[in-house]
Amino acid sequence: GAVVSQHPSWVICKSGTSVKIECRSLDFQATTMFWYRQFPKQSLMLMATSNEGSKATYEQGVEKDKFLINHASLTLSTLTVTSAHPEDSSFYICTPSSNEQFFGPGTRLTVL
Amino acid sequence: QKEVEQNSGPLSVPEGAIASLNCTYSDRGSQSFFWYRQYSGKSPELIMFIYSNGDKEDGRFTAQLNKASQYVSLLIRDSQPSDSATYLCAVNIAGAGSYQLTFGKGTKLSVIP
């Protein structure tokens, strides 16, 4: 299956700062990347879909100006959480759009 | 609203027993169905997927799909303590051409030694 890496795997930041999460598809050219979020004891919820070379699409209730997505190449998509607040603390997971449905290892964000 | 439902558990089974995990979905247009295992603090790992009605076996795991009843299940034979995890059912509701998944809330399984 597709090999996906995420960086960082764990980040702690102060409230009001911005955090960038990278998602790399190591052996698969991903024209589309899905970004999911998982709060403690909850299931995964789709946040947004990033598309290489074009604008991302966001799910209802997800602020596009707060969660900036860039998908500049077929192997890299980034999610930037701007002006992070404690309620943004969550587990962020990416997966390239494919029928294999393998997920990246996730990034745990803790906002103090 | 298109939904995927699972019993949250916890489901406890003794080691060596069969664990049965169930999932129902609301959208009859759903075409593909996935089972993931998620250990605490980790990303979900794909166990298996199923597209057609009937059973699909892979080692100790069997997925069962009944589209008429909108029901998909996962059986784990000879359960081991290492199988203790949360099992997520996911459904591709958007259909052909889109691989977006909708997840259930997961069932926590505990295998008792």
Give a concise summary.
The complex is a heterodimer of chains A (112) and B (113). Chain A is 0% helix and 53% strand. Chain A has 112 residues and is an all-beta fold.
Q: What report would you give on this structure?
A:
The complex is a heterodimer of chains A (112) and B (113). In chain A, a hairpin with a 2-residue loop joins strand 5 (45-51) and strand 6 (54-58). Chain A has 112 residues and is mostly beta strands. Chain A is built from no helices and ten strands. The model of chain B has no long low-confidence stretch (mean pLDDT 92). By secondary structure, chain B is mainly beta. Classes of the chains: A mainly beta (112), B mainly beta (113). The interface between A and B is medium-sized, with 22 and 21 residues.
Task: Using brief descriptors, characterize the structure shown.
heterodimer; A: 112 residues; mainly beta; six-stranded mixed β-sheet; four-stranded antiparallel β-sheet; 10 strands; globular; B: 113 residues; five-stranded antiparallel β-sheet; 53% strand
Poorly predicted runs of chain A are none
Please identify the structural class of chain B as seen in this structure. mainly beta
Helix content of chain B: under 10%
Work out the strand percent of chain B.
over 45%
**How many beta-strand segments of chain B?**
11
Individual helix count of chain B: 0
Number of strands of chain A: 10
Q: First CA to last CA of chain A: what distance? A: 36 Å
Largest interface: A-B, 22 and 21 residues
- The portion of residues forming beta strands of chain A comes to over 45%
Please tell me the overall pLDDT of chain A. Answer: 91
| SSE arrangement of chain B, N to C | EEEEEEEEEEE
Helix content of chain A: under 10%
Radius of gyration of chain B, in angstroms, nearest whole number: 13 Å
Oligomer: heterodimer
| End-to-end C-alpha gap of chain B | 40 Å
C-alpha geometry of chain B: globular
Report the mean per-residue pLDDT of chain B as an integer.
92
List low-confidence stretches of chain B. Answer: none
> Largest sheet of chain B, described in full?
6 strands, mixed
What would you report as the Rg of chain A, rounded to the nearest angstrom?
Answer: 13 Å
